Amino acid sequence: MKVRKCSTPEEIKKRKKAVIFCLSPDKKCIIVEEGKEILVGDVGVTVTDPFKHFVQMLPEKDCRYALYDASFETKESKKEELMFFLWAPEQAPLKSKMIYASSKDAIKKKFQGM
């Protein structure tokens, strides 16, 4: 997901714009949730508003971790930031919220540049 200065157009299209992570069924590992990612090549083709699509992919009643590669403009320049989210909706079970909150630091340490 990190920005690479020397990338071909094909490599850029395969780069991930957003990824959602969940706990494994046995609650011992953090894994990429299958089918819950947005590729840069999808933006403008199958996804018109990537952030809106990203938020809609998050579950209403369970917690998740997510990475989102945000692009925005300031007065001075165009910027890209990698954002980490801990999604814990009010309707999520208390046990799930506690597990996700307690393992947040472990997953953040695995991401370079965070």
Low-confidence stretches: none
Provide mean pLDDT, rounded.
85
Task: Tell me the total number of β-strands.
Answer: 4
Order of helices and strands: HEEHEEH
Strand order of the largest sheet: 2-1-3-4
| Biggest sheet architecture | 4 strands, antiparallel
Which structural class matches the secondary elements? alpha+beta
- What is the distance, rounded to the nearest whole angstrom, between the alpha carbons of the first and last residues? 12 Å
Number of helical segments with 4 or more residues = 3
Roughly how many Å is the radius of gyration?
15 Å
Approximately how much beta-strand content do the residues carry? 25-35%
Helix share, percent? 25-40%
Put the structure in a nutshell.
The chain is of the alpha+beta class and 114 residues long.
Task: Write a structural description.
The protein has helices spanning 9-14, 50-57, 94-110, and strands at 16-23, 30-39, 64-73, 78-87. With 114 residues, the protein is α+β, with helices and mostly antiparallel strands. It is globular and about 40 Å long.
Question: Which labels suit this protein?
Answer:
single chain; 114 residues; alpha+beta; 3 helices; 4 strands
